[in-house]
Amino acid sequence: RTTMKSLRFISAEAFVSNVEFARKRLSAVSHDLFPLLFKASYLLEQGEVIHDLVESWPLFDFNIGKLLGPTLDYQEDLSHRTCLVCLESCLTGQKKNVLNQSAVYKKKLKVVDLKKKKDVEVQFCKCKKTMGRWARTQLLSKLCSELLVYLQQEPCNPGTFEISINVLIDLFVTERNYELVAQALLKKCNCPLKICCVAFRSDNLTLQKFFYIIRQKKTCLLRKLEIVHNVHLEMEKKKMLFNSIHFPLLMSLTLPKKKFNVRRFTATDEQMLSNIGEKMGEMTQLTELSMPFSILTGRIEKLLSPLKTPLKMLDVSNCSLNHADMAFLANSFHANHLEALDLSGHNIPELYPSTFFKLLSHCSSVLRSLTLEDCNIQDTHVNMLILGLSPCQKLQEFKFIGNALSSQALKHLFTFLCELPMLNNVEFPVPRDCYPVGTTYPIEDASLCRFDHQKYERVAEELNLILLQANREDVKASTPLFGSYDAVVQETSNELGAFLIKSFKETLEKFTSSFNKMS
Prior knowledge:
alpha/beta; Leucine-rich repeat, LRR (right-handed beta-alpha superhelix); 20 helices; 42% helix
């Protein structure tokens, strides 16, 4: 599909395509043309021109999402392109903007907005290299530190020290970039480029380092907090986090996997859980909550009832919810506002079919994303599922990997899915009849790939043909056996793997030591 370009945009492309010509004449360009030239340069991957545009940016703000989003001159949205060449040029250009002596008293730039860059699996840029969230955090921190060193060592125009530019960014901190980020945050008062963390993700960090980073940031600006892999945030530390640090604007909270287990709760743990629920209730902006792989049986009401704002996103996958939990969700004020819901890992057809469909009917008018992986959905449940999904006319994404559905049932379901007007992404399971007879569900990881691949390909073609015949080429259908693409995990997979090996080694050493003592 070709997106139309205005004559202005075509002219901008012609201007920036000759790098040497463009760089020499930027000083004569009208200020209101800078956004147009920036998007044209980004599309053509003209890194040097991007660098010079940012260095001499004449406007009050630089919002990369708006600059690359749909415009009257060029409707295509480029904000999902995390091209290494372009983003590196943007960030280094910001540093040069501060040091540009020629226009130090003419500088207007006050806000640089780099947040909400969406990292996607397939990049359409020519270089095919991405700069993910971790790398953006790393480079910005490095540039801030270099800038401070330069200002301390080199003679600069006095006006340079009065420059203050707020850089809004989604930070991603791991053990590997911790020192650099910590230094940049510690000294940000003295740096012209002020890192303002709007979203924060932490992986593979000790608690001491996690709390240090959190306390260095202005948490009053924080809108999204993700504590994901290998941050050992036990109950007492969760309580400490919410009691000692305030998050007045927090809209999205992700807590580490397997950090709640009500089966082992003491009376003190129960009190702490109530306290955490109360503290979340004080977060009046909170609309997204993710607590996967925690055992929360019978405690959903205790956690969610204090919330004063209805949730729009809820992930309670593999949380061992019981009928009381599902009944609370179905009857709560959250139900009518849920736009994204993940109930994976629950035996919905056997445990609470009517309550689940009640919940689905309440959120049907707003639901955009539904994930029901490993939910024991079988052929006999498909008609009921279709009935429940029929009112969900705004559904854009439906994921149901890991359910024991036959090829025939999938074809029946796909015929219905074609009728959902906004659907664009479906993740479906390998048909049950592609696996050997006697295969039990949920299928263990070691057996996931042991199916008839040729038969699967034939079925997948038939399912895509159903979409094609219904003129639904816009729907992407796939079977990601080991989960959907995760840009963050992809970017830091080596570090995550090394951390897991280290943890396994330490556990083995402790076991060996204990065994030797017993002997």
